[in-house]
Amino acid sequence: VSEIQSAKLLIPEKNTIDVPVPVLKPHVKTSGKIGISEIPKQISAKTDIRIAEIITCLGVKNKNSLSPQKEFSLQKGATPYVWMDVRSKKTPYKLRHIYYLNGRRYCSVPLAIHYPRMRTWSNVTLRHQYETGNWRVDVVTKKGEVLSQVEFTVVP
Question: What pLDDT shows up at residue 78?
Answer without folding.
Answer: 81
